[in-house]
Hints:
Strand order of the largest sheet: 3-2-4-5-1-6-7
Largest sheet: 7 strands, mixed
Shape: globular
Number of helices: 6
CATH superfamily: P-loop containing nucleotide triphosphate hydrolases
Number of domains: 1
Number of strands: 7
Order of helices and strands: EHEHEHEHHEHEE
Radius of gyration: 16 Å
Amino acid sequence: MGDLTLITGGARSGKSAFAESLALHAALSVTYIATLEPLDDEMRDRVARHQARRPSSWRTLQAGADLAAIGREVPAADVLLLDCIAVWTSNRLLALRDDEPTPAVLAPFEETLMRDVAAFLDVVSTRRGPSLVVTNEVGDGLVPPYALGRAYRDVLGRVNQQVSQAAQRAYLVVAGRPLLLPEPLL
Length: 186
């Protein structure tokens, strides 16, 4: 019960394609939870490309702020594929509508976010089918020069750690090649 795999990597590393291949090879029904809100032509094109490479039999749900609620909509025996929690985190941070969030704003935001991620992980832990969570690794680059970018990097890093701690396995995808990560130290 509660088989969770985290797939992380940089932009255009192949992490979504790898997650989709894991879902396909599970030979189960798949429910894809999308987090990208297609707000412009580039994003709509990106969504269309992702949809075109997925089997038409896969069910797609659009994630809102409440990941646990959308997770409960996925049949328990399906593969749950969430792509991606980094975009979900960004959506939540941008909903603050604050380009320079202060520690006084970020602390309660992050506390709520972590509770929401924990609630989603609780749902995942009760599922019979495997769960795949895709995320971006944003901590390997330069420190963002603006407050919102630094807040995002820091918050997403903690979200990724929280999901990784709950996962039975985690992969880092680099140049289209998945690397199985060792067990967490903690």
